[in-house]
Amino acid sequence: MPAINLQGIGMTSQRTRDRLIERLREQGIKDENVLEVMRNMPRHIFIDEALASRAYEDTALPIGSGQTISQPYIVARMTEALLAGKDKIGKVLEIGTGSAYQTAILAQVAEQVFSIERIQHFIPRAKKILDMLEIRNVNLKHYDGYKGWSGFAPYDGIIVTAAPDEVPLDLLNQLGEAARLVIPSGEEGNQKLLCITREGDEFVKSSLNAVSFVPLVKGTRL
């Protein structure tokens, strides 16, 4: 990977990032800890250089293989919902590493992040970027996200960055007591962002936003 300017210039400068944070605040993101983490995260390094000038637009951008880096508002909304007012949580499972942008955000607010990616070729780049940012509390795995990562369960929070038609039972079972699963669910064109909290053997569901995510696909690929 060629040398990358973490600070950014022009359309990737700190001033441009600050404008994005103000837009997120205007759209209803209230958690100042989440906003500060996103203000300091150089989103332009997670995408192709040709798209870097668009890094701080509040929009999803392609990263190849039919996948996207999520819209900043959605990253903020999901992270805020996961934290539920806490500054920090313990173990978090992420389904869908992709560009590793959401992964890097989670790493700032969780003690440990366990991130699963079904497309193998995304993992080496994700590792390089996380190393560049000196993020050391993330574990990556090439695996089927539908199955979760049972070896480190239960988790204090789970985030899923692609949409299944139905919430996978394995992910519900890997939630700890009072932990939250933040997940888009539903068919294309009719997806909702859900927040599901475990209360003993019960799972309490609330709907946060109408969303549009790529589908969560079973299995793995190169």
Give the gist of this structure:
By secondary structure, the protein is α/β, with parallel strands linked by helices. It contains 6 helices and 9 strands, in the order ααββαβαβαββαβββ. The longest helix is centred in the first third of the chain and has 13 residues, at 14-26.
How many β strands by DSSP?
Answer: 9
The main pleated sheet reads as:
7 strands, mixed
As residue ranges, the low-confidence spans are: none
The class by helix and strand makeup works out as: alpha/beta
Radius of gyration: 16 Å
**The CATH topology of the domain at 60-211 is what?**
Rossmann fold
Written as H for each helix and E for each strand, in order along the chain, the element string is HHEEHEHEHEEHEEE
CATH superfamily of the domain at 60-211: Vaccinia Virus protein VP39
Biggest sheet, spatial arrangement of strands: 5-4-3-6-7-8-9
User: First CA to last CA: what distance?
Assistant: 20 Å
Rounded mean pLDDT is: 94
CATH architectural designation of the domain at 60-211: 3-Layer(aba) Sandwich
Number of helices: 6
Percentage of residues in strands:
25-35%
Highest CATH level, the class of the domain at 60-211: Alpha Beta
Shape: globular
Helical residues, percent: 25-40%
